[in-house]
């Protein structure tokens, strides 16, 4: 069993930055790939970024490539999403997910409860 708790969301102006964190409980954190997904009101959940269990491989949605960076600290059971140059279209609830492999589809063994990110223009 893995429990995921996101934090770091909030309100920011366009062009600003936020860093999301996802703290995991459980001793199996390092065996999972970890992903970030987001869901805007009335829309389906979409892939943002994912990182392999070792941190050696990362993948990004085209819409965030070059602006967002995913990283993890297995010693702290935490995955991060650094978000720079934020745009209003980045506004969504952001979810972290524990995945069996680093894939872009919203498939995961465990999901966090989500954290709201709002970018004002």
Molecular structure report:
- With about 120 residues, the protein is mostly beta strands.
- It contains no helices and 11 strands.
- Strands 2, 4, 5, 6, 9, 10 and 11 form a 7-stranded mixed sheet that branches.
- Strand 7 (about 70-75) and strand 8 (about 80-85) form a beta hairpin.
Comma- or semicolon-separated keywords:
single chain, mainly beta, four-stranded antiparallel sheet
Distance between the termini: 40 Å
Average predicted local confidence, pLDDT: 95
Query: What spatial form do the alpha-carbon principal axes imply?
Result: globular
* Helix proportion: under 10%
What is the topology?
Layout: E1 3-7, E2 10-13, E3 18-25, E4 33-39, E5 46-51, E6 58-60, E7 68-73, E8 78-83, E9 92-99, E10 110-111, E11 115-120
Parallel strand pairs: 2-11
Antiparallel strand pairs: 1-3, 3-8, 4-5, 4-9, 5-6, 7-8, 9-10, 9-11
Short description:
This protein is mainly beta and 121 residues long.
């Amino acid at each position: 069993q893995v429990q995921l708790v996101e934090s770091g969301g909030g309100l920011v102006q366009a062009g600003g930055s936020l860093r999301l964190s996802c703290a995991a409980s459980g001793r199996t954190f390092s065996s999972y790939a970890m992903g970030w997904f987001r869901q805007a009101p009335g829309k389906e959940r979409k892939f943002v970024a994912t990182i392999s269990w070792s941190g050696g491989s990362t993948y990004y949605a085209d819409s965030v490539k070059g602006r967002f960076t995913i990283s993890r600290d297995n010693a702290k059971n935490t995955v991060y999403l650094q978000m720079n140059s934020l745009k209003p279209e980045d506004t969504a609830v952001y979810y972290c997910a524990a995945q069996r492999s680093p894939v872009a589809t919203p498939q995961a063994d465990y999901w966090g409860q989500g954290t709201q990110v709002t970018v004002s223009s």
